Amino acid sequence: MLEYNSTRRALKGKKKGPCKITNPVDSCWRCDPNWVKNRKRLADCAPGFASGTTGGKDGKFYVVTDPSDDSANPKPGTLRHAVTQLKPLWIIFRKSMIIKLEQELIVTSDKTIDARGANVHICYGAGITVQFAKNIIIHGLHIHHIKPTTGGIIRDAENHLGLRTASDGDGISLFGATNIWLDHLSLYDSSDGLIDVIQGSNAITISNCHFIDHNEVLLFGASDTYVADEKMHITVALNLFGKGLVDRMPRCRLGFFHVVNNDYTHWFMYAIGGSSHPTIISQGNRYIASSIYVTKQVTSRGYLSPEQWKNWNWVS
């Protein structure tokens, strides 16, 4: 059953009085009473290190009408058919829908997935992968109960089928991806991470997302020795890390990470962690630990001694 979504309902309805938006990202577009006719205004709003990301702004609209999925030969009107087209596209949804992906959804460059005005769930199947692609906006999806899949022959472009290995069950995986903006997503209960950003990905912003009920939430860099991740720049802003989360909000390696104006509630192990000398700037975050003493740790440097991490650049 689809859960009630107050954001979608509010966008559809009319309110009296002046528009009052305090969120610095949403204020870019949300007070426009004709936002549905000016959807591409969103492309001017990317904050942080993903600033300048425009997604499918320069392309046509593509309307998803069919929630079915075929990982090798997707039908026109399905989400997989849309994201594998080799041209800029602004992808919207005709109606609310549940999409169960057979295999990981490979998103190509210059795409916007815009679920505003609909209630769209990616669930009970594979997750979303952005591999060596750039300039992508994903906005307004619910992503949950993501499962590992076996891999196989998967459409990764309109003119190409690729043999993929098994997927881990991440909600969203960014692999060598650049200029990616993830905004207003709801993520929970996946088999592996909710969002993994690895293998030299850069210029990423995760904003206005809601995370609950999961173990390892955000992983930025998968190896202490993968030096290409030193160039990684990620903004984590205006997110709600709700109840039922364990750790990695985020867990950082090597790169530069700005964690700003997030709300953390009742984690089980730690909130922000890192290894291999990452630079972490933490500003304006609120941490509300539970009443259990052992769950009050905000930062974690693994099992390293102070001598090993004393020169890391962590600023709060």
Question: Can you give a write-up of this model?
Answer:
The chain has helices at 6-12, 79-83, 306-309; strands at 60-64, 89-93, 97-99, 105-106, 111-114, 120-123, 128-131, 134-139, 142-144, 152-157, 160-164, 172-175, 178-183, 186-188, 195-198, 202-207, 210-212, 214-216, 218-220, 233-237, 240-241, 245-247, 251-253, 256-260, 263-265, 272-275, 279-283, 286-288, 299-300, 314-315. The protein is mainly beta and 316 residues long. It has a single domain (46-315), classed as Single-stranded right-handed beta-helix, Pectin lyase-like (Pectate Lyase C-like, 3 Solenoid). Residues 1-13 have low confidence and may be disordered.
